[in-house]
Amino acid sequence: MHYYLNLKNIFLLLALSLTYIILGVMSIQFVTMPSGIAIAWFPNSLLLALFLMKNIKEWKYYIPFFIVAEIVADYQVFTLIQALQFSFINLFETMFGAYIIKKLSSNDGAGFTNTKYVLLFFLIGLTLMPAMSALFGAIVYHTQIDTQTTFFEFWRIWFFGDSIGILLLTPIMVLLKENYKSLKNYDFNIQNISIALLSIYLAIVLFSFTDINFMLPTTPLLFVLLLLWIVYKQGVLPGMIMALLITSIAIYYTSSGLGPFSIFGLKGTTIYLQEFIAILVITTLFFGVLHQEINESKAKLEELNKNLENMVKEKTKSLMEANQKLNNLASKDSLTNIFNRRIIDEFISKETIKSKRYNNSLALIMIDIDHFKEVNDKYGHQVGDEVILSLVDIISKNIRESDIFGRWGGEEFIILLPETNLNQATIVAQNIRKKVQEYRFDKVGQKTISLGVSEFNSNDDSTVFIKRVDDALYKAKATGRNRVVSL
Q: Are 31 and 38 contacting, i.e. CB atoms less than 8 angstroms apart?
């Protein structure tokens, strides 16, 4: 409780109480027909908005201030007992209504952001609770105040005045709080300003018209279309504010006996005016919130689709990477990460067919590490693997990107050289042999290689081609190793 016992919050409570009194005076002075019937009773709109926006636990701090405000507002017209009764009726209506709306909407704070909340507001805030409070208010009027007005007439005046007042102001108060930060970014462009000024001008022209035969009582309903366009383009809050301005103009001129509703008697004029206000504002609020809800759903759906697309892209990327890894495992040698024998066989078959078709040169180099078994026997297989990896690195740096390099098996390697004749391939082989001979392998020192070279001719097939380069390699090894033999 100490939170509210500071100067700032006491000032806020006093300001709200003063606002309550001012709204009551406005309802009597400016929103009342010549017959004395209030078109709209605004004080309860403040109470309901406040209770909707505040946590239920905080309500108790406001009750005493509003009771005093009701007594101050009524002291010239009603007795203290009557004023107390009216204050309790108003508090019962707004507190109980706000409580039910909160519980049924599962929303501890106000929120005109979904149609469920709006429908609960219509059913509870505009219908059920005003009807109940009107019943209690009519009892007080009928039993304690000397008047010729019937009980039902008292009930009707209270009910419609209360409902219209709540409908006009409560949503705007709540929406202002909800959209306070976004109001700073509101687009005051020429189009929005023009629409607002045009709406006000049309309302003044229509409701100040003196020739009542020129229009029908239903003509003002054209403003429904205008307000629907405003909420569609600008949002709920601008639409509700414009609805308040239009209804204020309608009340002002109608209470002066002007406009399309003035063809009826005092009672009929009031009823038609209240019906017009109810239709205009309810339609604006409901369809404004519905449009907002649809836009939010679309935005969520677009975000969901975007997330799903990203997830699909990620999954696709992962699958592609996994497939690439599988392809690598299937096509690459596990130790050296160069092509394995199966893939080299496929490349040789494809390139020999291409060579026959286009009459292109094609050469093969087959390589064997001299006395490699001695390395494994003396230093172990791990050192042998390191020698193979170093050899692969040397060869890879001394061939073209277009050349196809693979491990044929064990310590044997093969290079397929497209667009290369026998002499060119022999030069490549000699260069590789020299580079290897000059290299000093870790722990092993110098190692040499033997190389066989062969060129494909049109009478060959891939098997004959491979057999010939294998024979060349065998001859290189048989004639002393560390040499290149071309066949």
A: yes
Q: What is the DSSP string of 1-62?
A: -GGGSSHHHHHHHHHHHHHHHHHHHHHHHHSB-TTS-BS---HHHHHHHHHHHS-GGGGGGT
The CATH number assigned to the domain holding 409 equals: 3.30.70.270
Asked whether 210 and 142 are in contact (CB, 8 A), the reply is no
CB contact at 8 A, 278 and 164: yes
- Other Cβ atoms closer than 10 A to 229: 13
In a domain, 35, yes or no: yes
The answer to whether residue 313 sits within a structural domain is: no
Give the residue from 278, 305, 332 where a domain finishes: 305
Distance between CA atoms of residues 469 and 23, nearest Å: 105
On whether the CB atoms of residues 138 and 155 are closer than 8 A, the answer is yes
Residue ending a domain, among 305, 331, 366, is: 305
Residue 380 within a domain: yes
What percent of the chain is predicted at pLDDT more than 70? 91
Q: Which of 386, 411, 419, 438 is catalytic?
A: 411
* Alpha-carbon span 33 to 36, nearest angstrom: 5
Q: Check if 411 is active-site.
A: yes
Which residue, among 216, 224, 325, 349, has the nearest Cα to 280 in the 3D structure? Answer: 224
For residue range 297-337, what is the model confidence (pLDDT) as tens digits?
898 898 999 999 999 988 888 888 777 776 666 778 889 98
**pTM for the complete prediction?**
0.65
Between CA 286 and CA 410 the distance in angstroms is: 80
